[in-house]
Amino acid sequence: MSKIILASASPRRKELFEQTGIPFVVEVSDYREDMNLKLKPLELAKELSRGKAEAVAKNHKNEDAVIIGADTFVVFKNKILGKPHTAEKAKEMIKEMSGRGHSVITGFTVLDVKSGREVSRAVESKVFFRKLTDKEIDTYVKNGEPLDKAGAYAIQEFGSVLIKKVDGDYSNIVGLPLAPLIEELKKFGVKL
């Protein structure tokens, strides 16, 4: 069986992929994301995931390896929201999304190093925040969780208290849409 490499620094993606039971290793990609590419969000997610997978593939020329690259971001009012990095920016993002819905898009690429075959897909899920008070937002931001999360929250952690409802693939919102990914991996001969 091919060596499976998850090209990601995300601990959440690693935890999700562990749920498949497929043996794999993690190798962080040195790909520099360019969020300013003139692409629609679904295409941008695929392009960024492809860049990550291809960057790691360069380290494994002619090996029997399958690389998985992924990228996740939030889209609100037709604008891509990345990681806020500051408490002020996190509060601003959450306040704006309070009582409203947004999309979480994850692009993923599966790349077979030996054959050069690759496929990229993007999955979109909808998340709806409940109406939040300023105190709730402050309390959430003070715990530090939102600073390194796209859209300033983590649905699988304390951020779950912000959510009213979800429409779509939950694992996609966390950062790796498992069912669609498994579908593609099977086409590459990867067995569960």
From TrEMBL:
Enzyme class: hydrolase
Molecular function in Gene Ontology: dTTP diphosphatase activity; UTP diphosphatase activity
UniProt keyword Hydrolase, yes or no: yes
EC code(s) of this entry: 3.6.1.9
Catalytic activity: dTTP + H2O = dTMP + diphosphate + H(+); UTP + H2O = UMP + diphosphate + H(+)
Cofactor(s) this protein requires: a divalent metal cation
Active site residues per record: D71
Gene Ontology CC entries for this record: cytoplasm
Annotated site residues (Important for substrate specificity) in this chain: R12, T72, Q156
Family: Belongs to the Maf family. YhdE subfamily.
NCBIfam families recorded: maf (TIGR00172)
Function: Nucleoside triphosphate pyrophosphatase that hydrolyzes dTTP and UTP. May have a dual role in cell division arrest and in preventing the incorporation of modified nucleotides into cellular nucleic acids.
Protein name, UniProt field: dTTP/UTP pyrophosphatase
Record organism: Candidatus Nealsonbacteria bacterium RIFCSPLOWO2_01_FULL_43_32
